[in-house]
Structure formats: structure tokens, C-alpha cells
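Sequence in, structure out.
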Amino acid sequence: MRTLTLPSGDAVEMLGELPDGIPLAAWDGSDPAPAAIADTEFWVPPYLPGALDKFAAMPGLRVVQLLTAGFEPWLPVIPDGVVLCNGRGVHGSSTAELALTGILALLRRLPEVVEQQAEHRWAPLETYELAGRRALVVGAGDIGRRVADRLRAFEVEVTLVGHTARDGVHGASELADLLPRHSIVVLATPLTANTWGLVDAAFLGALPDGALVINISRGGVVDTDALLAELTSRRLRAFLDVTDPEPLPSDHPLWTAPGVLITPHIGGGTLGWERRAYQLVGDQVRRYARGEQLINVVRAR
């Protein structure tokens, strides 16, 4: 195997023991690229997708291993003959925890309680219980399944939806029938041609009054104007870890819409994520060096 290139030399100690003789290089994607990068066979780009145009510096590249679960921006630019793997499993637990946090915060009206605390005002509120509710989780991959597991622990009846139906998972074609029967919808699907704008006016309009929309996937899955209309009417509430556009401009009306709680795309950004991510990288490098099948492959050669 030729050179393994990492975003930082500090990541090496998190990889675990590697086979002997693998040259290592560090490159954060900035210009100019070090000369050694030309020998890169296995590349781990930086966490943020700012190196999408750097393939010309690595003519011998064979594998790109991402640190993120999201891989959509890479698909149009990945060269022929290069395998693309994502970081599935690295951020699942923390992202699922954030989804549950958002649901509980909305049901127990924590944003309003925080405002009261800032005003030094004691004013008990009528809040809502999570137990006994029905939740629709759109996206049946690692993150969606982890969300489902956590919701079930809170006595929630969960319905999983994937692109196609399979054992324990409903197909996307069933959404129109499922939406009216669920008071919580969690979006945990990748952003693809099929899911861009999936949550439009018709999708939102099919939800019952008072339903919660939880987006931990990608902002483009939701039609922002359609969601704004539902929030402004106070018919639905939402927790958004991602938005469209993103970052959300300071003057965007989503900031001040009623019934919305927004976090700045922090689902996977907990302390310790790097160690989990580079453990995956180390495992993948060892598989590759042994000639074994890689996991998390989202685009083969």
C-alpha cells in the first residue's frame, strides 16, 4: 500500500496498530499540497467538506474514507476508480441523543422556561409527556435505528421508514398514509435526489395539529418556506439541527418563528467523536491492507 494521508498528524495515535511499511502523510487540504501527497492511495479528508476539488493532487488515489456519515457532496466529484466510504456509526449515538433532547425540550417547553429564568419569573407551564406517543422515523440507517431504540425506551411506538420496504421498515411510498397517525416525525435520511425537498407543504399538511418535526439529517430535506408557514400558524413545532440555507443567516425568519428550537449542526460534534472516527479509519486501513472488503462503502469503483 502506498501513502495513507490524514488531515492531521495528531490523528496517527488514534488509529491503533497499522501494518508495517505504510507511509503516512498529513494534509488538511490547503494549498499548496506537499509533494508526498502525490503518492496517496488511501485518503481521509478533513471533517468539513472543504477539499472537494483536491483529487488532482493524488493521481494514484484508490480509497476516500470520510469522517462524516454525510457523503452527498462527494458523489459528483469522486473520480472513477475511487471507492468512497462514509463514517456510518461514528456519529449515530450522539446524533440520536440530540434528536431525543430536541423532542423532550419541545414537549416540556424548555425554551419558554429558559426565557422565564432569564426574566427571574416563576410561572408554571402545562407541558406534555413523551410516553404513549407515536413517532415516525424517516431514515432506517444507523442514526434512524438508534433514534428508534431511544424512543422505545421512553415508551414511544415507533414506525421506521426507508427508501424501500423490508422487514420492520415501511417504504417511502407509504408516507402519505403514515403521516396523519404520528405526532412526531424524525428526519434521519441522507440527502439524495429522492429526499431533496421531501418534507414539503403536502408532507407537513398531512401531520396532525401539534405535531413535532425533528430534522437531524440535512437542511435540504425540508422545504424551509413550507415549514415556516406551519410554524407561523402555530400548527406545528420543530427542532432543527440543520437548516436550508446553512449556516442560517442572522436575519432569516426561522430564527424568530414561533415553536422552533435551532442548534447549529452539532449532532455529531460531541467530545470524543474524533477517537471513534479514527478507530474506524484504522480498521478500514487494516482491511484494505489485507485485501478484505471495506465497510461503509457508499460508492464502489
